[in-house]
Design brief:
The chain has 255 residues and is α+β, with helices and mostly antiparallel strands. The protein is 48% helix and 14% strand. Helix 1 packs across helix 9, helix 2 packs parallel to helix 5 and helix 5 crosses helix 7.
Length: 255
């Protein structure tokens, strides 16, 4: 009974982060290499659980990361060095959590893009490049590739839920399903959407990094918690749930 309970809790708390998407054949429109806007891409990766500055220091901190997000932390520190010429190394704690600090960059981004309450000012993301870059950052950390051009983004106790919806609409994404997991703690908002060719250009930029993050998620949250038959049973249950979900989404997305 205890094992069954653990399996159900895992399915609720840690939905699949596995990439079910097949290899996409990119035509001439989607084969172009997109250029990320550094500021807004980083903003997309930012955590804002219960508000941006509830757990992140406004004056000096770039972000904080869970143990499975180690590849993300390393990518962000390299990205900052490459794009801003700032050395901001990730500091890892004994339990695997990590943080990145940079007074200069933190003050720049937090002052330019956030109000005093820690709410992102979406109007500052005012070009298509910035919008796609911000969405790509969100997808990198919080998204999932389900099948072909169907993606999802899941945010928890986050102010990003309204940002995601507004961005998808403004970027001409007309196939969107919104789900709010009412009654669960923490509260999660999930968006399922069919990515446009332009979105695919940007998602392609971080394809390898996204795969590394997904593999780390699987290792930390599944392989380390469940062993043998329990792990196999959980993955089978998850695959069945995901298959049913994808079928339902495809039905709603039909022309």
């Amino acid at each position: 009974m205890k094992q069954i309970l653990i399996l159900h809790i895992l399915l609720l708390i840690f939905p699949s982060n596995k990439n079910f998407g097949q290899v996409i054949t990119h035509d001439s429109a989607t084969a172009k290499i997109a250029k990320l806007d550094p500021d807004t891409f980083l903003l997309g990766t930012f955590s804002d659980y219960m508000g941006r500055f509830r757990y992140v220091d406004r004056e000096s901190q770039i972000d904080r990361y869970y143990p499975y997000e180690k590849p993300l932390a390393h990518f962000v520190e390299k990205f900052i060095l490459d794009e801003y010429k700032i050395k901001a190394e990730a500091k890892f704690q004994e339990g695997g959590h990590s943080e990145i600090f940079s007074v200069k960059l933190a003050q720049k981004l937090h002052t330019q893009y956030y109000n005093d309450e820690g709410v992102l000012q979406l109007q500052m993301i005012d070009t298509n490049q910035k919008k796609y870059s911000y969405l790509t950052g969100i997808y990198y950390r919080y998204g999932n590739h389900l099948k072909e051009n169907i993606y999802s983004i899941r945010v928890v106790n986050s102010m990003k839920n309204e940002d995601v919806y507004q961005l998808l609409k403004r970027l001409s994404c007309d196939r969107i399903i919104y789900r709010f997991n009412r009654g669960y703690i923490p509260a999660a908002t999930v968006f399922y959407f069919e990515a446009t060719p332009e979105m695919l250009q940007y998602f392609k930029v971080i394809e390898i990094e996204k795969k590394n993050l997904q593999e780390s998620y699987e290792k930390v949250y599944v392989d380390s918690l469940l062993k043998g038959k329990e792990a196999l049973k959980f993955k089978e249950m998850r695959t069945q749930n995901d298959s049913e979900l994808i079928s339902n989404i495809e039905y709603f997305f039909k022309d």
